[in-house]
Design a protein that fits this description.
The protein is 71% helix and 0% strand. By secondary structure, it is mainly alpha-helical.
Length: 234
């Protein structure tokens, strides 16, 4: 199982050299940017995108806000589950990092001693991207685009084969979609309960002006009924 790509005749290795070769021709500063983006930047961008989507959903306060927030909660949970699933996969395949067998690569990140298949970065970003798509298509498309860019960066940096990235994409997508029905069945009622809560309801839905005015009433005061409001208006 340790040999998935051993020679340059393998398309996986050919594509590795084609993409990583771009790093050899790029300016030093650009490689440093790609190193940061591929190692930390895109992961941070995905987290911020999830938070942005959550903020947008709660501000709009739509009827299905609870189910959308439930999907947003599921996205990082699915990413964590996918990484845990990847642990036995890596141990079973035992594929060395590409720079172990191919010493002429331009490796931008050193110190990687674990196995290569599948890519954790690709798994996490695609799980977040697909989870976002379940919650909101517009944000999800952006997230999937960032995940694809993450996969390119991992090969560009010389730390993964292209098939490591494809495997990560498949794993992250599978965990999100296959477990989504169960996750949503559990999380949606929970988010609806949170929405009804006076203290935690802001997590799901931003308080409207009328809610704020209602909270400002003197404790124990009776709210005016609709007929009384009309009389006052008259």
């Amino acid at each position: 199982m340790a040999v998935l790509a051993e020679s340059g005749s393998n398309p996986d290795v050919d594509l590795l050299y084609d993409i990583n070769g771009l790093a050899k021709d790029a300016p030093h500063w650009f490689d440093r940017v790609m190193e940061f983006v591929g190692e930390y930047g895109l992961l941070l961008a995905m987290v911020l995108l999830v938070l942005w989507c959550w903020w947008s959903v709660r501000r709009r306060a739509e009827e299905d806000a609870a189910s959308t927030v439930a999907a947003l909660v599921w996205a990082p949970l699915a990413a964590g589950i996918a990484v845990l699933v990847n642990v036995p996969i890596r141990g079973f395949v035992e594929r060395p990092r590409p720079f172990v067998d191919h010493h002429d690569l331009n490796v931008l990140v050193t110190g990687k001693t674990d196995f290569s298949f599948v890519s954790d970065h690709a798994t996490i970003t695609m799980a977040l991207g697909v989870g976002l798509f379940v919650a909101n298509r517009r944000f999800g498309l952006v997230g999937i685009g960032l995940a694809l860019l993450e996969g390119f960066c991992r090969v560009y940096m010389g730390v993964h084969y292209p098939t490591d990235v494809v495997g990560g994409f498949a794993l992250g997508t599978a965990v999100v979609l296959l477990l989504s029905p169960l996750a949503m069945a559990l999380l949606t009622p929970l988010m609806k309960a949170v929405e009804r809560s006076r203290r935690a309801g802001w997590i799901v839905r931003a308080r409207s002006t009328s809610d704020a005015q209602g909270d400002a009433l003197v404790p124990g005061a009776r709210r005016p009924v609709a007929s009384e409001e009309k009389d006052l208006a008259a």
